[in-house]
């Protein structure tokens, strides 16, 4: 089940909200945990067993690490064991097919194997489980003795499938008690509707353009058409992931939780480092806290820092997907960040902001080619079209068609991926002096976005989540 579906919007969510608000406080976590398991089992009836086993395993390991706090060596061994099991669990399901394909590519014989479907959300809940175990080991959090609380933290349906990745210490107290209010519920509804519009209206529409261009025959694509396809994918993945994160934050507020911001207008950045401070923030913070800092970069020389950055970005690339293109994509950003930090970062600051922004967006778009291509060869071939070799010319009728028929989509996407879109909505609302008029204007705008999104869902039932492929 996905948030942007008729079933979720008009059956699952209303039922859970009614039960959650009418039931006594001491049973609210039971309702949330039950809802989360049902939500997961809706699309993964078998893999919900593995989710439950993960909860039980990490619950026992957390208690074990907490019980051995007086003996750091034993506590560390318990932590290493628990983290290793979690990583192996993730590695088996996510990288088993990749490993077998790689072996078959180099071995003289072909090893047959059965391809396993990837459990949805496993990349999220495994990282959250590791966060809990490490925080307990560091004594930044107490081992959770209430299995309902830990189960809810690992499996909470608002962020189970696509994040944000929430650190345990940031939500520990909220698992025990939280405040519900009409104001917070209203804020959550606004976040959710905004995210729904991003996903259904903008991401799906941009994705349709990209899929059409990607499906064109080689030799029949112009330079401009190739760039339009790449830009369309850039908008698709941004509005899908940020939209889903907005929906997760909105749902969390409706149930009394507070999730961290996951995207902060990354396409407005004027450097690659600035982009990654704004893109998938919770993921970057997780790798910084649990991988980069433990590697000891703060007290090492430049060569060691470079090595550790490459390790981290290789892991980030592999976290996104199980192919060599994702590994290359991660290393691509690792190298760019190293170059900005140690070589041309200071020179960039002296450049005009427009030049820095063009530089950043060009490199981001090139990176997306590695991200969406099925192989490195396909990525190189597509980039060849973008820069001339292999293209049918600089511009053709197809490029003109996309620009003239989808200009409103791209204009809306540009506004929506910058602060201009938000400021525009606020300007309309604030133009009314009376408080009731402001609320009425806001209601009309967001109800309108919701109704348009529903219309898109009804007319275009195909609404898969791009993130599920990774």
UniProtKB/TrEMBL annotation:
Keywords, comma-separated and alphabetical: Acyltransferase, Cell membrane, Membrane, Transferase, Transmembrane, Transmembrane helix
Topology in the lipid bilayer: Multi-pass membrane protein
Pfam families, per database record: MBOAT
InterPro entries assigned to the protein according to its UniProt record, in alphabetical order: Ac/AlaTfrase_AlgI/DltB, AlgI, MB_O-acyltransferase, MBOAT_fam
Signal peptide from the UniProt entry: none
Main location: membrane
This protein's GO CC annotations: plasma membrane
BP-aspect Gene Ontology terms: alginic acid biosynthetic process
GO molecular function, one term: acyltransferase activity
TM spans (from-to): 7-23, 46-65, 77-96, 116-134, 146-169, 218-239, 305-321, 327-345, 357-379, 399-420, 440-458
Localization of this protein: Cell membrane
Highest taxon listed in the record's lineage: Bacteria
Keyword presence, Membrane: yes
Assigned protein family: Belongs to the membrane-bound acyltransferase family.
Protein name: Alginate O-acetyltransferase complex protein AlgI
Organism lineage: Bacteria, Bacillati, Bacillota, Clostridia, Lachnospirales
